[in-house]
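User: Hey, quick favor. My workstation is busy. Could you predict this chain's structure for me?
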Amino acid sequence: MPKMKSVKSAVKRFKLGKNKIKRGSAFRSHILTKKSAKRMRDLRTTKYVHPSDVKAVEKMLGR
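Assistant: No problem, here it is.
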């Protein structure tokens, strides 16, 4: 049986937390001048993968 290979793009995007899978937030790479300070502060907080997507992400990570 060949080894399971993880999806390298998924390895770069997701980090395994203790109970959840962490992810980065979208909409914070460019055109930042029109976004409010409150919105940018909210985008900095930790986000987690939605429960309906956890199984697919774990498969990509080779778990």
